[in-house]
Amino acid sequence: MRTAEPDVVEVHLASHPKLLGLVRALVGEAARLAGFSDEEREPIVLAATEGVTNVIRHGYRGDTTRRIDLRLHAPPGSLQLDIEDDAPFVDPTDIRSRPLDEVRPGGLGVHLMRSTMDAVEYRRNDRGGTTLTLRKRVGNPPLVEPPPAEERR
Amino acid sequence: MNVKREDHGEAVLFVVEGHVDMHTSPELRQQLRSALDRRSSPIVADLGGVPFIDSSGLATLIEALQGIGKYGGKLRLVSLQPSVRNLFRLSNLTSIFDIRESREDALRP
Questions:
Q1: Contact B60/A105, CB-based, under 8 Å?
Q2: Nearest chain A Cα to B59, which residue?
Q3: Interface touch A103/B96, C-beta < 8 Å
Q4: What averages of pLDDT result for each successive group of 10 residues across chain A (153 residues)?
Q5: CB count in 10 Å sphere of residue A32
């Protein structure tokens, strides 16, 4: 008899942007089951979208036929999402967000993930690709939130 | 995502509905570019029907802002939902964009 853990969901999907909505639905519902409020779920769903988008755009360079593995672990009170690709491994020290005072398109995804999640970790996986792990605990507000511009002046 | 366009004299209004992400932002970009090509101003994007934008959507709006600046036009955003407004704050973009509360205000020359 095969068994499965109720707090774990594993899926694989093609690296096609049309599936981003499905990723959001899956991650959002897992976060709800783990006990995150509506307000808390929004940034988690955003971070998941940014993580998968980065794989499609940068890892697979827009190739929509590659494989992405998602593993959600969402027991009561926390959520962990692993996003695994087999694109060439990128050294985490090369992954950085752009300075926020530099207004230009691009480079915001990493900043948004780091701003909203408790932990954002990259590691080389056993397929030579990259596994991005995003973690969040219930009741833990974003670590980094720049104050409104008018308050900084 | 759905984008409806309304012309108001020199101004153009885009009513955007749905999620703006890597999949849908190319359509929004194309619509904004058509208005930029006509040198419309102000260009107004009503985001009241947008519950979710990611960095791809933000990049599209930043591109439009930079494009319209080249001919001295104005880009205005209106009716941001709280989640989207929070995204602008997180991205430090609240002071960069001209964000209005009503379409009427945003469509003024």
A1: yes
A2: A105
A3: yes
A4: 95 98 98 96 97 95 97 98 93 67 74 94 94 95 52 37
A5: 14
